[in-house]
Amino acid sequence: MKQTADVIVVGAGLAGLVATYELTRAGRRVLLLEQENENNLGGQAFWSLGGLFMVDTPEQRRMGIKDSHELAMQDWLGSAGFDREREDHWPRQWARAYVDFAAGEKRRYLHQLGLRVMPTVGWAERGDGTATGHGNSVPRFHLTWGTGPEVVRVFREPVLDAVARGLVDIAYRHQVDELIVEDGAVVGVRGTVLEPANAARGVQSSRVGVGEFEHRAAAVIVTSGGIGGNPDLVRENWPVERMGPAPRSMIRGVPAHVDGRMLAIAERAGGSIVNRDRMWHYTEGIKNWDPIWPEHAIRIIPGPSSLWLDATGRRLPAPYYPGFDTLGTLRHIAGTGHDHTWFVLTRAIAEKEFALSGSEQNPDITGKDLKLVLSRVKKGAPGPVQAFLDHGEDFVQASTLRELVDAMNAISPGPQLDFAQVEREVAARDRAVANAFGKDMQLMAIRNARAYKPDRIMRVAKPHRLQDPAYGPMIAVRLHLLTRKTLGGLETDLDSQVIRADGSPFPGLYAAGEVAGFGGGGVHGYNALEGTFLGGCIFSGRAAGRALARDLR
Question: Cis peptide leading into 319, omega within 30 of 0?
């Protein structure tokens, strides 16, 4: 077929929308191909909490947070741990460019599009307990007012306006199967037209083909996402030497269409994939009582107070506390030989500290309902948390520790818990609460968190004994491992142009978002600082769109 657009974008998630937006600002014509239906425009970003990693912002300064480009760069490099000469060449450069963006233009760029953030700043991924190691030294998690749907909206609306003006064509249910390469350059795509589907957003859709297509353009941008919805591919790429054997069971934090197909297709065409063993999965997964996709998982975003026990009832060691070091905790859990763990807490901790990942689990912020947001400071669990307490199969409650352990054993997928072992852990933790000082490092972390005023008011419960009936009933949560993000991917330069295996640029082929490891084939290195996934999609999609808008003739 003849060329019908300047650029073909494969995947209508956030990175694809951002790239399309930047291209149309320059008057370029875009063909946007998406294998799902129109309901899925915006991809995974729609489901997100909408957190954005930003540095030295007005919101931080109003909260008394002293952040800087230098501190953020120290945290990023300490977390990334770049150690591969070949595969980390571009990720190192992307990391510096991204922190520059987060400490500079990022807030202004999004603000001009109409995006606003909450006045308080969250402290996510607090780290491994060292100044130069993994983790955020200060709060940097800027929560979007409107969560993921709002992040999508500010790019979706100008793209749909460009559709109305004839600059963009969106072809839904178009599954790309091949990149067309001629004379060493990508010049188009071939694929399958899938049968129409009216399924709601996120629901698994048919892969029955009803036709074929071929489209050509001066360049192709791949923005198709990662592998988190494909458990077999996750296990195939699992870093056994670093993390231990792949878990036998994992529930899914992303829809089934996040299947990694385009990674293999781009590699067959000649693109270089690097750092494929780097990935980001969560340890605080719970099964959704009202699922949308297969094995639909929700992550508890916990405050620091819950007692975390392994499958045998032993307390996880420092610094593996709730909300501190995701992959360090994952590595420890994998070493126990079991795929589940337990939170033990009180009703008072759940009411104040439990938040749930996802836009649909936060209707107050997603719906921009200020009155409902302010109700969070009142006594009582937020509605979505209460729904899981009432209906979630992973939650049990009891008046006494003996009754709680019996209830835990009734739903345990592995070894039966020994009451004496659990009682020792709970009693030792409760004794440590009696003084305002002590050697329990988790309680030190709780008190440090409460020194940050927003945490003290809205996020971290006053320390108390878990067996104190005044704060009860006691609650236990069975936690699963859940898949989420791909940290490696297609290797790209700072213009998001894909690199070939020999290190040379691949003419006509670009990649952005998760399929490119959020930039360069792995901008995060081994660890992420949270609030960086949406930002990585925005930054890499922006780079691809601006480069092609500049260079196409």
Answer: yes
Rounded to a whole number of angstroms, the distance between the first and last alpha carbons of the chain is 20
Tokens coding 37: 């239906």
Q: How far lies 127's CA from each of 81, 301, 345, 446, 447, in Å?
A: 13, 15, 22, 14, 16
Is it true that the peptide bond before 505 is cis, omega within 30 degrees of 0? no
Whole-number pLDDT of residue 376: 73
Q: Which amino acid is at 89?
A: H
Tell me what the pLDDT averaged over the chain comes to.
96
Amino acid (one-letter) located at 530: E
Asked if residue 148 lies in contact with residue 50, where contact means CB atoms within 8 angstroms, the answer is yes
Q: What is d(CA 135, CA 30) in angstroms, rounded to the nearest whole number?
A: 39
Nearest CA to 492 among 468, 461, 523?
523
The DSSP secondary-structure symbol of 43 reads G
Instruction: Pull the structure tokens for residue 175.
Output: 């599954």
**How far apart are alpha carbons 31 and 55 in whole angstroms?**
35
Ramachandran sector of residue 517 (left: φ over 0; alpha: ψ -120 to 50; beta: rest): left
The CB-side HSE value for 443 (13 A sphere, CA atoms) comes to 18
- Smallest Cα–Cα separation from 304: which of 342, 332, 345? 345
Helix (H), strand (E) at residue 177 = strand 174-182
Closest CA to 280 of 526, 464, 491: 526
Distance between CA atoms of residues 130 and 390, nearest Å: 39
Q: Spell out the residues 6+ positions from residue 61 whose beta carbon is closer than 8 angstroms to its own.
A: none
Token pair recorded at residue 391: 């209906």
Cα within 13 Å of Cα(186), Cβ side? 31
Q: What secondary structure does DSSP assign to 11-24, as a single string?
A: --BHHHHHHHHHHH
Question: What would the two tokens of residue 60 be?
Answer: 């931080």
Q: What is the DSSP string of 366-424?
A: HTT-HHHHHGGGSSS--HHHHHHHHH-TTEEEESSHHHHHHHHHHH-SSSPPPHHHHHH
Longest dimension (CA), the chain: 76
Please give the order of strands across the beta sheet that includes 174-182: 174-182, 185-194, 209-216
Is residue 3's pLDDT more than 90? no
- Identify the three-state secondary structure at position 431: helix
Over the stretch 75-97, which tens digit does the pLDDT of each residue have? 999 999 999 999 999 999 999 99
> What's the one-letter identity of residue 10?
V
Contact 530, 10 (CB under 8 A): no
333, 343 contact by CB (below 8 A): no
Q: Do residues 35 and 173 touch, judged by C-beta distance below 8 A?
A: yes
Task: Give residue for tokens 């070939």.
Answer: 500
Torsion-angle region of residue 486: left (phi > 0), alpha (psi -120 to 50) or beta?
beta
pLDDT in tens, 226-272: 999 999 999 999 999 999 999 999 999 999 999 999 999 999 999 99
Mean pLDDT for 423-437 is 95
Put simply, whether the predicted model's pTM sits higher than 0.85 gets the answer: yes
CA nearest 523: which of 202, 68, 235, 91?
Answer: 91
Whether the CB-CB separation of 467 and 398 falls below 8 Å is answered with no
Q: Cβ distance 226 to 486 under 8 Å? A: yes
